Amino acid sequence: EPEVTQTPSHQVTQMGQEVILRCVPISNHLYFYWYRQILGQKVEFLVSFYNNEISEKSEIFDDQFSVERPDGSNFTLKIRSTKLEDSAMYFCASRRRSRSGANVLTFGAGSRLTVL
Amino acid sequence: GQQVMQIPQYQHVQEGEDFTTYCNSSTTLSNIQWYKQRPGGHPVFLIQLVKSGEVKKQKRLTFQFGEAKKNSSLHITATQTTDVGTYFCAGHRDNQGGKLIFGQGTELSVKP
């Protein structure tokens, strides 16, 4: 079964450092998402991406965050200057273009970010 | 903004007992989805409900979507230890690829 793959599985970084989390969505999917989950809490929407641009972003997704699809397969989330509160599991998800009503997201296994 | 509320936050049951989690949205949804997240894992899609009043079953799991398309429930009959995990409802306002908003989740533990 096709998978969304994410790297790294775990990243430890110092506060203030830049981090890039990478995702390879399912190949025929056209919509891409980043979500994050602070330990023990709910899954929070960060950003959605379609047709090479951000289609929607949450209030969490401020200027320190950016996304990119540099080469047609990878989908990256960059955090420019990490803060302690950025420590979380970051999930990438994708979905294919589909008929109305079939909006199922496939999630990757996640990248755990620990900011010290 | 749109909020999706889910209760209870935790549920501890004895194996064989039933379990229900409830989900309410502050706005009408175009569809609602349910995901299961095992401890240390990622959300895995279970089912999507689209029609008002829709009921779907997957073995021991029964999913309902309210008539007003603002609430939903997941009921598990005769829980097993393999049912352990956090169950999230998640809603879309539209069908245009917009964000999926998750509820807080209900963490189910099952005592053998």
From the structure above, extract its key features.
heterodimer; A: 116 residues; mainly beta; Immunoglobulin-like; 7-stranded mixed beta sheet; 4-stranded antiparallel beta sheet; 0% helix; 48% strand; globular; B: 112 residues; 6-stranded mixed beta sheet; 5-stranded antiparallel beta sheet; 11 strands; 54% strand
Describe the structure.
The complex is a heterodimer of chains A (116) and B (112). Chain A has 116 residues and is mainly beta. Chain A has one domain (5-96, 108-112): Immunoglobulin-like (Sandwich), CATH 2.60.40. In chain A, 0% of the residues lie in helices and 48% in strands. Chain A has strands at 5-7, 10-13, 19-24, 31-37, 44-50, 53-57, 65-68, 75-79, 88-95, 106-107, 111-115. In chain A, strands 2, 4, 5, 6, 9, 10 and 11 form a 7-stranded mixed beta sheet that branches. In chain A, strand 5 (44-50) and strand 6 form a beta hairpin. Chain A starts with a strand and ends with a strand. Chain B has 112 residues and is mostly beta strands. In chain B, 0% of the residues lie in helices and 54% in strands. In chain B, the strands form 2 sheets. In chain B, strands 2, 4, 5, 9, 10 and 11 form a 6-stranded mixed beta sheet that branches. The radius of gyration of chain B is 13 Å and the shape is globular. The termini of chain B are far apart. Classes of the chains: A mainly beta (116), B mainly beta (112). At the A-B interface, strand 4, strand 5 and strand 10 of A face strand 4, strand 5, strand 9 and strand 10 of B.
